[in-house]
Design goal:
Layout lengths: L4 E6 L2 H11 L3 E8 L2 E7 L8 E6 L5 H10 L5 E4 L3 H10 L4 E8 L2 E7 L5 E7 L1
Parallel strand pairs: 1-4, 5-8
Antiparallel strand pairs: 2-3, 3-4, 6-7, 7-8
Protein name: VOC family protein
InterPro entries: Glyas_Bleomycin-R_OHBP_Dase, Glyas_Fos-R_dOase_dom, VOC_core
Length: 128
């Protein structure tokens, strides 16, 4: 068994697609119209057949209270592995990305947390 899909709830799929592709560097894998929304996934260009991230509409009534509470408590919705947190932090900062946590060393990992502009905090992590 392996993880095939993971989701983040987003307040605007078009805005999320732009952020996750143009800023974070993922590539669109799937886009299927489903009425008002789309089945929309992105993947790492380094692993195009790997785990897909679903940019899931936040239209379910439980989503807003859930994501609002996570953000209020500073809890990331998910985490992405990077080779060098400091390099990614600087690259993303130069692109105007807002970080809620600068790089921090925590034992075997260095992490930073960013705002994805779509209602989520996202952690980037470098494992040493």
């Amino acid at each position: 068994m392996k993880i095939h899909l993971s989701s983040v709830f987003v307040d605007d799929q078009a805005k999320a697609l732009r952020f996750y592709t143009d800023v974070l560097g993922f590539v669109k894998k799937t886009e299927v119209p489903l009425g008002e929304y789309r089945w929309l996934t992105v993947v790492s260009p380094e692993d195009p057949n790997g785990t897909e991230l679903v940019l899931e509409p936040d239209s379910h009534p439980a989503v807003k209270p859930y994501t609002t509470a996570l953000v209020a408590d500073g809890i990331p919705a998910t985490s992405f592995a990077v080779d060098d947190v400091h390099t990614e932090f600087n690259r993303l900062r130069e692109l105007g990305v807002h970080f809620t946590q600068d790089p921090v060393e925590m034992g075997p990992v260095i992490t930073a947390v960013l705002d994805d502009t779509c209602g989520n905090l996202i952690q980037i992590a470098q494992y040493r």
